[in-house]
Amino acid sequence: MSNQLLKGKKGIIFGALDEKSIAWKTALACHAQGAELVLSNAPVALRMGEINKLAEAVNAPVIGADVVNMDDLKNLFTESMKHFGGGIDFILHSIGMSLNVRKNKHYTEIDYGFNQKTLDISAMSLHRVLRTAWELDAINEGGSVVALTYIAAQRVFPDYNEMADAKALLESVTRSFGYHYGVKKKVRINTVSQSPTRTTAGSGVKGFDGFVTYAEKMSPLGNASGEDCANYCVSLFSDLTKMVTMQNLFHDGGFSFTGVTNAVIEQMEK
What we know:
The protein is α/β, with parallel strands linked by helices. It has helices at about 20-30, 45, 50-60, 70-85, 100, 110-135, 165-185, 210-220, 225-235, 260-270; strands spanning about 10-15, 35-40, 90-95, 140-150, 190-195, 250. A 6-stranded parallel sheet has the order 2-1-3-4-5-6, sandwiched between helices. The longest helix is centred in the middle third of the chain and has 25 residues, at about 110-135.
């Protein structure tokens, strides 16, 4: 259902890899609500070609950018503003990559060189994006930035590995930059802590399928789907949430505040 909540708004979506990704679903939802978009991803992801299908569906250009390269980000924002004929109203940061997870390194034995790259790509990339926008005065007054995170930033999920640290840093950047951008231009910056979602990136986490099932049983409303998350992001990009900033917003069917459920107890007693 479209209420045209984003009519006249212009946004950049980072990280739409394929149809499973939350960024992909968010782009579709934003387009349905009247937004104009620019899509961006890393050059290696663009070579897969999947994003071109999304670009056609939402009538958006694709501008590649390595999020740890400041020149790439400057070019992205400059070209986006040229395309839009003005500033940007919202940004989705849906970016995460763990080299130690890829290399099957246990958390107690991580490679610190890999770890630095993980933190740079998965967390400090948000700081780079915001700094670039700040220096170019690219985000309009009252704009909104959302970054996707996970509850492993607050609680231990052993196989989530170094990505837990990356998400904790991401949430800290959100709060710190959120203060400064709020004072400067009333720009809102929040993280959305989403249920475990079956995406291409998420499937790389050890034991992921079992955890999705557990989270489903532990959530009073069940796991939030990627489509649900996309719609929540739309609300945060809209004018309905102008006073929400620097928050970590749990979008997980109640998982984050549930101690135990009957479904989990029944499973344990089998």
